[in-house]
Amino acid sequence: MSSSDFEHEVKLSLTVNGRRYTRTVEPRMLLADFLRHELGLTGTHVGCEHGVCGACTVQFDGEPARSCLTFAVQAQGHAISTVESLAGGPGKLSVLQEAFRECHGLQCGYCTPGILMTMQAYLAQHPDPTEAEVREALSGNLCRCTGYQHIVDAVLLAAKNLRAGAAA
Amino acid sequence: MSTRYFGQPVKRNEDARLLTGSALFVDDVELSGMLHAAFLRSPHAHAKIISIDVEAAKARPGVIAIYTAEDLGDYWQHGPLLVPPPPVPGIVFNLRTQVPLAKGVTRHVGEPVVLVIAESRYIAEDAVGDIYIDWEALPVAAELEAAARPDAPRVYPDIPGNVAAHAHQKRGDYGRAAKDAHVTIKRRFTYDHGCSQPMETRGVVAQWDNKADKLTIWDTTQAPVAIRNGMAAMLGLSERQVRVIAPFIGGGFGPKIMMFYPEEVLIPWVAIQLNTPVKWIEDRAEHFFATTHERGQIHDAEMAIDKEGKIIGIKDVFLHDTGAYDPYGLTVPINSQCTLLGPYVVPHYDSMFTAVFTNKTLVTPYRGAGRQHGVFVMERLLDIAAREIGITPAEIRRRNFIAPDAFPYNHGIIYQDFTELTYDSGNYEPILDQVLATIGYEKFLAEEQPRLRAEGKCVGIAVVCYVEGTGIGPYEGAKVQVQASGKVSVVTGIGTQGQGHFTSFAQIVADACGVDVTNVEVITGDTDAFYWGAGTFASRGAVVAGNAIGQAAGLVRQKILATAAEHFECAETDLIIENGKVSLNGVPGHSITLGELAGMANPMRGAVAPGTEPGLEATSYFGPPMGATASGAHAMIVEVDPETMMVEIKRYAVAHDCGVVINPLIVEGQVQGGVAQGIGNAFFEDLVYNDEGQLLNASLADYLLPSSMDVPRMEMTHTVTPSPLNPLGIKGVGEAGAIPVGPLFAQALEDALQLPKRGVELLDIPLSPSKLWELARNA
Ligand code: FES
Ligand code: FES
To answer: Is residue B404 scored above 90 in pLDDT?
Structure first.
């Protein structure tokens, strides 16, 4: 345990990926650091720590949010989901994840968790987007490797497959 | 060999791990009791350190240790020279390499001065704020041309004019030949290449295991083997005592293969001193100052052409900004000097450069590694020449190509791998034809552009060509082994940063050993798994490691056949390897799995016959005699809004030739990603320094990386001219996409805004809407 000012630490209870956690944290601890280093959920990545790259995107009560711009204590009583929750079990991939694999929508994969969390929420609300709409929705997430084309293809494919799944 | 996987768009083996958040990156390493590092970095570009007061920091609860240069004792050493200067006659080279912590003086903003170790990164950063340093600011050499003047402030007191290097290469006699020129074109070009900005910054975690007498380092490096060797030497350990793991790396693009970054040198040493694991992860602000850049060159270039637009010769004198230290030798400016020649015949070439120390972050290769700068000069000169004699940019390129029967083609100057710059193979005209057909060049010029212009639209088209030296030596190696599970493992020493090695290498092995590609496990970036190697740079992974793997897999295939032939008591030619089994041809039911054969090859009784080895395993090495030269052409149609100067890319076409392709999906991804970085370089990314050597836009909010709105869909075609230099016929592709985008933008924007008619030429990269607006307004 840290020997620094204990009296400043506060108690935090929240739900992450459907599981309840209670921890004591410094109020200044970022949600990204909390998820990664306190809970060991290292799938959420940190690219810039200043809200630009989107690598750290998680869902906060279902809405995409930058975990580098959120203090852990702000999540008190809320539900967070991270990339670790998407596949729905070992050895499985969600429709969106599968589409990324199909279309080669990732290279180094560092930006990918943030993009998945952003686009999963987007597709839930926009089941039939155009390419231009996907590009716009994606524009808050930087990827340095792919040039985006295969990511856009993957999101469009996932939308199609999700619609087909919903219709079936 | 069947070709079931080789050449196919096989989906990647590594994706599931990356998509589910279960891939290990360096910052994901958590070790019990781990401490955290933060650095106090120089706020000045050039300053004397008068005194350092760390007492308040030391007193802060949670702070474990603090180190300045003085505290490092003998461990404080200058870094090594990575690439010695090439054997160019008369070359001047002044070696000055970086140090772990600044001692007495700092030479660029962001240079580390004090290292703080604490129980958490939060506390470590608090303690950095507690440190007081008394600085005395020194005069700064910032802007490249100013820094090169004899009376400029000196980065090193003993080096007037800040000359880091000077090299002159010549072919033929430009001065004499140019006298016969129909036209001579002379211009000044400036080309700034920014910084690589991988989405994952750098990081190092080190753990000393007292009981095993062994150090483990997790490092975001592109060259784990070289880091292992260097760290062992610096720490006085044997190589076997040091294990370097480069796990999943979140993009590299060149700067992750610097040796050695100060943090790389310090964190393992501290872990040993404190006998406790230590982690340092670079934040994005640090990354802008502490990770190497590429930056700029200024070229005064001249091209002599004849009546037909054929190049008689080129003369180029350029300055290269190398930053405060030059551990990478002359790799970047030599690349510029050589790659300038492109796919063209240049009978007379006279090129001289001076590399200049400045008080800025050091310059090392970033995707393209100086090739962009040379390509920009050549392509722009050709554009201007085409205008002078009244032919299209496409036509002047066609008239100057090296003929397909002229290979191997020797340019008669020395390249970065120290061999004479020689192209192994190529066929350039079909590539140009392809890209012109894809973009509809003739039709656009004849019909669409006049029509759109009549509607008041500013539309332009461009086409440029380039070559890329790839796949240089020295060598890589690989070990392929059939596991008792029936899966095949392949280990190699190179690091991987997203290039799909887990898949392309698996494809090579899957075909040779007759297994499903998902049953090939590729292990890279762990020095305990494979001892030898050089690293991932210069678009060489697939070429050099790929061929080593191909050879090793071929040897394992022979062992599989020999073992099976013995088992079935048949000739090897009667056997078929497929689906993880060896079967007797034409005898249904007679088959044995690779796993069973692996067991037979490792018997528990009996002796291993002389001259044989247990197991189905082979190790092989491959080193090409010289680099393989890939080539390509890009074309683009843009529309510019004359009010805002925002550019919309309407069409983007790529035709390229990277020899034989292992996985077209991965190659496409590499090219698309390269083009995206090229677009950033051409139009968005600009490292803005003031005269004090302060970087003014060190955040991703101000240094603009292209987004999904800025990078267009690309239309891609491939031709294949196999490389004769390696058995698989591969050429590298990692950097190709990024190289020609600057001149493409310049040509397209000049055309769209009809700038030359108004007396304006675009001779500088990066461009931006505001720069365009200024230029157009002053026209
Ligand atoms: S790390 Fe949060 S937006 Fe970049
Ligand atoms: S795949 Fe590397 S940053 Fe997106």
So the answer is: yes
Is B676's Cβ below 8 Å from some Cβ in A? yes
Prior bond of B727 cis (ω within 30°): no
pLDDT at A3 over 50: no
Q: Which residues of B touch A50 (CB under 8 A)?
A: 284, 699-701
DSSP B629: E
Contacts of A5 in chain B (CB under 8 A): 61
* Ligand closest in space to the Cα of A138: 2
> Which residues are registered as beta bridge partners of B479?
B491, B619
User: What does the block give as tokens for A121?
Assistant: 């929420």
Write down the residue that tokens 């772990």 correspond to. Answer: B100
Task: Please name the member of B24, B201, B249 whose beta carbon is closest to the beta carbon of A108.
Answer: B249
The predicted structure's pLDDT at residue A4: 47
Query: Looking at CA atoms only, how far is residue B401 from chain A in angstroms?
Result: 30
Mean pLDDT over B744-748 rounds to: 98
Residue B2 scores a pLDDT above 60: no
* In chain B, domain spans: 31-138+196-290, 297-472+625-777, 473-622
In this predicted structure, what is the pLDDT of residue B1? Answer: 43
Domain boundaries B31-138+196-290, corresponding CATH code:
3.90.1170.50
CA of A48: which chain B residue's CA is closest? B284
Which ipTM was obtained for this model? Answer: 0.96
Return the HEC string of B649-695: EEEEEEEEECECCCCHHHHHHHHHHHHHHHHHHHHHCCCCECCCCCE
What does the pLDDT look like over B20-54, one tens digit per residue? 999 999 999 999 999 999 999 999 999 999 999 99
| Domain residue extents for chain A | 3-85, 95-167
| Partner-chain contact B707 A109, CB within 8 Å | no
Q: Tell the CATH topology of A3-85.
A: Ubiquitin-like (UB roll) (3.10.20)
Give the nearest chain A residue to B61 (CA atoms). A4
Q: Residue B29 and residue B20: Cα distance in Å, rounded? A: 17
Nearest alpha-carbon partner for B362 in B408, B406, B328: B328
In this structure, what is the dihedral angle of CA atoms B124, B126, B129, B132, given to the nearest 10 degrees?
Answer: -70
The tokens describing B74, both together, are 């003998």
Q: Are A47 and B285 spatial neighbours (Cβ–Cβ below 8 Å)?
A: no
Contacts of B454 (CB under 8 A, 6+ apart): none
**This prediction's pTM:** 0.95
Q: Do A144 and B249 touch (CB under 8 A)?
A: no
Q: With respect to CATH, is domain A95-167 assigned 2.30.30.30? A: no
Asked whether B733 and B470 are in contact (CB, 8 A), the reply is yes
Domain B297-472+625-777: which CATH number of 3.40.1190.20, 3.30.365.10, 3.40.640.10, 3.40.920.10: 3.30.365.10
pLDDT tens digits, residue range A52-86? Answer: 999 999 999 999 999 999 999 999 999 999 999 99
Assign B330 to helix, strand or coil: coil
* Separation of CA B525 and ligand 2 centre (Å): 19
Hey, how many other C-beta atoms are within 10 angstroms of the C-beta on B543?
A: 32
| A50 to B499: CB separation less than 8 angstroms, yes or no | no
Chain-chain contact of A142 with B23 (C-beta, under 8 angstroms): no
CA distance A7 to chain B (A): 14
Segment B193-214, tens digit of pLDDT? 999 999 999 999 999 999 999 9
Direct distance between the N- and C-terminal alpha carbons of chain B, in angstroms, rounded to an integer: 63
Choose among B632, B667, B635, B633: nearest CA to B652: B635
The answer to whether domain B473-622 has CATH 3.30.70.260 is no
A64, two tokens: 């995409």
DSSP tally for chain B: helices H, then strands E: 20, 30
Residue B216 Cα to ligand 2 middle (Å): 27
